[in-house]
């Protein structure tokens, strides 16, 4: 590891302008070097060396050429300009969510130095990468670089959070804002999150150097309880809805939970038709009506897109606006500033509960009480207002996201088919306009590799930015792809009604059962149905004495052509493949 030398003098720290003024006093007016150095507080040896290297023009002092000053490393591979471009390249790779590790940066530095034929230490060539000393020195010179642990981000989120999707959402948001003149107290965001009985332990103080430090949790796998929460743009929160993974719901489940909260239950514990209950709960707390409209922002979860929910909201003056798919990590206020701190405080509350109730397990009935502690700390007006502000929803700011936040979508973006067709037609017409003489005069020689002396230095030439191939988009199966829409508008409501009718028609159609295929193999049975019920009681493999009723699924049997007894094919091995199979008893009789 390189040693960072601590400076004991100020030599080499004087600016070039001060050195130039001192040199002018010596060369132009003939003053002594020592007297000028004393006036400018400069070492006289440094000034003498600077004056000797200065090319002074008596006729035009403006044309005087001054040398470079300061200390420079004798074995430095890249100059300042090259290192600035390396820094920009590394930062852009991190913005694309394809950041480079320390070893990748060292390999890239070696490849760039080799491509541009720069002088480099011998250990670079031996190891095929730059040394650790270079990397540490490079990062110490660049204050914008640091070793960070990235957060895992799904490919769907990086693809879908792009400028067109975000622009469509804000266009819909501005549309409903202009139509209904919503105020901040009328703008709500609703979302669900899962709370489990097995918490993530927080940091504790333990013995230094110990390999493993444990913490007690309820079980290895927890039970999930879904919590639905709503907040508005002035910092208020609607009491939550808890969905328990049980067949029947009991109001006693909410004992100790947040004041005004409601509950429901289903087998899975996920949000299903219970979302209608929360919308009724929202109307109760907000007095929403045709004269007092409310705007609700939510994601494209299947329970949010149900026709009963849309009809109820349309009747009660609630406007539903959905986010683009896989964009809630940037556009949803609850995900930006509330649910993250709430999970942290929930884990802390679970840890305190385990310490206070040693030897007991957290049950699903304890979750409302623990969620209340977490919500009081996380769902504060400051956090809620911050979530609406950073997502650009209130105050409405369509330009809240910079180009660097859209960078991950550049890896998988595809050109607009209409634009590609227009460009291809334009290029075809321009090529047709060229005369044969003009084409023959074009310089089509291959490009020569760049050298370090040219100004076109770029690490991208050696290691291009990651880019997906423009292959055909695979057909999607499963549910319909979501999009940002105003669900309560008439066209969207009609589309939901037609989709619901199609589902009913598909359910009403009788299901045709497929006929089982006949087994054509001679003297060989592949399933238990091949042997009649009368033979089933007597069928025993005399090789292993295994009964037919205890056969494994898809286990094959073969019948002896002489004695008509059945045996396992695995017991007789390759003999079962013979056209006329004989068991060993029959073979011995024949012999």
List the helices and strands and how they pair.
Elements: H1 16-29, H2 33-40, H3 44-53, H4 80-95, H5 102-115, H6 122-127, H7 132-141, H8 155-160, H9 163-180, E1 187-196, E2 224-232, E3 237-244, E4 262-265, H10 275-286, E5 294-298, H11 307-315, E6 318-322, H12 328-331, H13 333-337, H14 339-356, H15 367-378, H16 381-390, H17 403-406, H18 417-433, H19 436-440, H20 459-462, H21 490-508, E7 524-525, H22 533-536, E8 557-559, E9 566-568, H23 569-572, H24 584-590
Parallel strand pairs: 1-5, 3-4, 5-6
Antiparallel strand pairs: 1-2, 2-3, 7-8, 8-9
Helix pairs in contact: 1-2, 10-11, 14-15
Outline the structure in words.
β5 (294-298), α11 (307-315) and β6 (318-322) form a beta-alpha-beta unit. The chain has helices at residues 16-29, 33-40, 44-53, 80-95, 102-115, 122-127, 132-141, 155-160, 163-180, 275-286, 307-315, 328-331, 333-337, 339-356, 367-378, 381-390, 403-406, 417-433, 436-440, 459-462, 490-508, 533-536, 569-572, 584-590, and strands spanning 187-196, 224-232, 237-244, 262-265, 294-298, 318-322, 524-525, 557-559, 566-568. Helix content is 40%, strand content 8%. Mean pLDDT is 82; it is low at 428-454 and 519-537. It is of the alpha/beta class and 591 residues long. It folds into 4 domains: 1-71, no CATH class; 80-141, no CATH class; 161-200 and 222-405, Ribonuclease H-like superfamily/Ribonuclease H (Nucleotidyltransferase, domain 5, 2-Layer Sandwich); 524-590, Herpes Virus-1. It has a 6-stranded mixed β-sheet with strand order 4-3-2-1-5-6, with helices on both faces.
